[in-house]
Design goal:
The protein has 168 residues and is of the alpha+beta class. Among the domains are: 37 residues, no CATH class; 48 residues, no CATH class. It is 30% helix and 26% strand. It contains two helices and seven strands. Strands 1, 2, 3 and 4 form a four-stranded antiparallel sheet that branches. A three-stranded antiparallel sheet has the order 5-6-7, with no helix packed on it. The protein is elongated. This is Pleiotrophin.
């Protein structure tokens, strides 16, 4: 009985082994049937980089607007295009509407020029705008106060008025 079991086990093992080899052969022929696709060629464009103009607001000097872009190249399908843009209304426009600066505190008043100044360093430039790294702005000092004793001048005015009343 053991020999019959042994023979049956060998037959099962042989059948499993043949099935395994059949599966391997099938997979191998399926892979061989597929043609290898040539790798996609990376198409190098001879088009240049986009160069963008400054943002031009549609109305006023800030808000929504448009900018035009151009690029060069012999085989470029598109050499010009228009893009929407926005100019923030709270930016200092005297340095370019696309340049944002971080300013220091106002300096002391220069008595010779009656101006005070402060310096700003570039914080951000929109759309690769050409911005200065640092800028300086000036403004009038406002009311210049000369140190004078106010208490004495008020007393003199009051005394003067009293004397005028007495004389009348």
């Amino acid at each position: 009985m053991q020999s019959q079991q042994y023979v049956q086990q060998r037959r099962k093992f042989a059948a499993a082994f043949l099935a395994f080899i059949f599966i391997l052969a099938t997979v191998d022929t399926a892979e061989a049937g597929k043609k290898e696709k040539p790798e996609k060629k990376v198409k190098k464009s001879d088009c240049g980089e986009w160069q963008w103009s400054v943002c031009v607001p549609t109305s006023g000097d800030c808000g929504l607007g448009t900018r035009e872009g151009t690029r060069t190249g012999a085989e470029c399908k598109q050499t010009m295009k228009t893009q929407r843009c926005k100019i923030p209304c709270n930016w200092k426009k005297q340095f370019g509407a696309e340049c944002k600066y971080q300013f220091q505190a106002w300096g002391e008043c220069d008595l010779n020029t009656a101006l005070k100044t402060r310096t700003g360093s570039l914080k951000r430039a929109l759309h690769n705008a050409d911005c200065q790294k640092t800028v300086t702005i000036s403004k009038p000092c406002g009311k210049l106060t000369k140190p004078k004793p106010q208490a004495e001048s008020k007393k003199k005015k009051k005394e003067g008025k009293k004397q005028e009343k007495m004389l009348d």
